[in-house]
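Progress narrative, work stream C.
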Amino acid sequence: MSNEDDVVVTIDEAGQPVVEKTDEGKQAPDPAAAELSSQLEELRASEAAAKAEKAAAEAQAAAARREADLARTEAKSARNETADSQLETVTMGIEAARAEANAAEQAVATFMEAGNFAEVAKAQRRLSSTLGS
């Protein structure tokens, strides 16, 4: 029998070559077939490694995107907190100025009723400095 009867190569349902040895002939395997089989295994291993590297790179990229999104969210939150804090400071200053102006107006009225014009002048100075600021 010839070497062709000793080895049969078929393609399975997944499209992969399958090497089968027949019982006839009992000759040594063809070195070319062994080399091809070895190359096929190396190719499969290389492909598996490439897939693993791709999956790792995609996971790393996804993690980087999540970290960037979190950093953007935190930065936006910090900006909002700063703006809120500044608004609160300005609002509190305005309220304090209003309260001081109201107190000065009340003092002017009280001192005028009492005829204490020296204190009226002081209260009017406080009132004009409060409104002028």
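Work stream C, second folded protein:
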Amino acid sequence: MPSYSTKRRRICAAVAQVVQQIELSTKPPIINVNPVASDVANVATEIEPAIGSCSADSHDGQELEMGGINYLSDSDSDSDGSELDLSSISTSDSDSDSDENVNEVDNQAQFKYELAQWKLKGNITNSSMNSLLEILRKRVPFLPKDCRTIVTPPKNVQLKDISGGQYYHFGIASTIRHVLRNKLKLTEGQELHLQLNVDGLPVHKSKNSQLWPILGLLQHPESTKPFVIGVFFGECKPKSVTEFLEDFMNEYTHLSEQGLVVNGYNLKVTISTVVCDSPARAFVKCTKVHSGYSACDKCTVHGEWHGRVTFLDLKAPLRTDDSFIRQSDGDHHRGAVSPFLRANVGEYDFRKVL
């Protein structure tokens, strides 16, 4: 007596042959006279007691694997005899439509990105960009009305709270690498001379809001435009020059000791010049402003009041690096030490004096 597994394999093989003949034949086979079908019927009759002895629950919801083809058991059909719902099966047409929609969305995003880059590189104003979008929207309707939709400002900017307002440091290294990213005239150990500018400017006419940027310019033939290193914003100028220049001085000290790697070359960065107007120069040097009695940067002359502060002595002793660092003239200094001295800016070594 063949085992249940053997009879099941015989049934699967026979059914597979019947299915193959049906697929190859142009006419449906007549099951009653087909010898293969008769063998299937006979085998099924032989194993009917064995199948019936199995628990009905053990086959519910299972698939019968026959000849590599999966057939659902009778229990998988709906109890009310309804047909199988094929609405959830996606066709090749729907797949192609979805691919076209994805490509269209990608093309729209790429077009918006190129417009945003064009605006930023060309320094196009928002009003001019909006006028262009108004014209383009007649033929490209997916474009927004306002350019701020496609040129979105960064949302996760970490501002540093300092006395008088907030400060953001763009960085010396990152900006220099950006300026020299495509420049080829570099050599190992080359010295980059950095020119700085610190100044304040009002933001609104009706408010006291001020912007104090730290600008840099490389004295290099490949660099002709200034760049922003850091910027301060507040209702007044920075109350502490030490806090204002802290991030800049920390990074500059590191670069002056370790160097800066650009395009595979290790370069040396030094500050050559600090360009400021009179109020800003007094601010970063921690000295009296230009209207003070001891405000002269060149000599130790003490001013007199004649309707205004007037410097009459034309032969007063000149100021020196040593007297400035030691703050010999107490009336000229405001008590604090300029951060530029801490960074050893200039030819005079501040550390040898203190």
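The two ends are 108 Å apart (CA to CA). No further action is required on this item.
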